[in-house]
Amino acid sequence: MNALNVAGIGKQFVMHLRGGIRIPVISDLSFSVERGECVVLNGPSGAGKSSVLKMIYGTYAVETGQIFIEHCGGRIDIASADPRLMKQVRQKTIGYVSQFLRVVPRISAIELVAEPLVSEGVDAQVAIARAKPLLERLNVPEALWALPPATFSGGEQQRINIARGFITEHPVLLLDEPSASLDAKNRQVVIDLIGEKKKAGIAMLGIFHDPDVRDAVADRLVDVTSAAVRQIQPEQAVA
Ligand SMILES: Nc1ncnc2c1ncn2[C@@H]1O[C@H](COP(=O)(O)OP(=O)(O)OP(=O)(O)O)[C@@H](O)[C@H]1O
C-alpha cells in the first residue's frame, strides 16, 4: 500500500483584499509515494510545488481531491481532516523540513532540534542526547548549540531545520529545498541522511532545485506543471 496517495488535488488562492482576484495554482494532480522512496516535485518557479507540500502538511486547505495517508493504523484523508487530527498527524506521521527555520526567542538551537521528539513524549534529556550527533553530522559548531539561532547564518539556520526534520521517525517526510543554502560538504550530509531514511522505509516527497542533489536522491520525478494553471482571473460576479 502507498504511504502517501495524492488523488486529483486542486487549489486556487483568492485574494480577498485585491478585489477577489483568483490565482489558480494546481488542478487535478495525482501521484503516490511508496515506503522507502524519495519522489521529487519538479516544475518551474511558481508552478505550485511548495503549495503541494503545504496542502499535504495541512497548512493550505485542499480545494478539490483527496490526500490519503496511513495514520495510527488507519487510512485518513488529509483534505477533509479537522485541525485537531492534523495536529496529531504532524506529531506522529508527517515530518516537514521547511525552507526557513521558524526561530523561537530564547530557545536554544539544540532545544529546537530536540523539540519534535519532546512533543512526541520523549524525555527531554533523551531528546537532547539524540540531537547532538545530528548537529555534529551537520557540522554545526558546538559553541552554537546553546544559543538561539536568530543570529545564525542562513546555512546554519537551515542545518538546524534539517536536524529538526530528521530527528524523528515520522513515516512520511516532506522536504522543501532542504539543501538550498548549503555548501557541498553539507549537501552531501543531506544526501546521506535521505539515503538512510530510505533504508528505514520512510516515504519522502521533496523539492530540490540543485540538479546534483535531485539526481542523487530522486527515485522518481513528478512534474506539477501539467497540473498547474497559470492564468489569473478576476472573480466572476455571482448573478
Ligand atoms: N498564501 C498564498 N497566497 C496567495 N498566493 C500564493 C500563496 N502561496 C503561494 N501562492 C502563489 O501560488 C503560486 C505557486 O507558489 P509556490 O510557492 O507553490 O510555487 P513553487 O513552484 O514552489 O515556486 P518556487 O520554485 O519559486 O519556490 C505562486 O504564483 C504564488 O504566488
Any chance you could write out the topology, listing elements then pairs?
Layout: E1 4-15, E2 21-33, E3 38-42, H1 49-57, E4 64-71, E5 74-77, H2 83-92, E6 94-97, H3 109-119, H4 124-137, H5 154-166, E7 172-176, H6 184-199, E8 203-207, H7 211-217, E9 220-223
Parallel strand pairs: 3-8, 3-9, 6-7, 7-8
Antiparallel strand pairs: 1-2, 1-4, 4-5
The protein binds adenosine-5'-triphosphate.
Strand order of the largest sheet: 6-7-8-3-9
State the helical fraction. 25-40%
Described by strand count, sense and barrel closure, the largest sheet is:
5 strands, parallel
> Ranges with pLDDT <50 over ≥5 residues?
230-239
Content-based structural category: alpha/beta
Number of strands: 9
CATH level 1 name of one domain = Alpha Beta
Number of helices: 7
Task: List its traits.
239 residues, alpha/beta, Rossmann fold, five-stranded parallel sheet, globular, disordered C terminus, binds adenosine-5'-triphosphate, Phosphonate C-P lyase system protein PhnL, nucleotide-binding, CP_lyase_PhnL
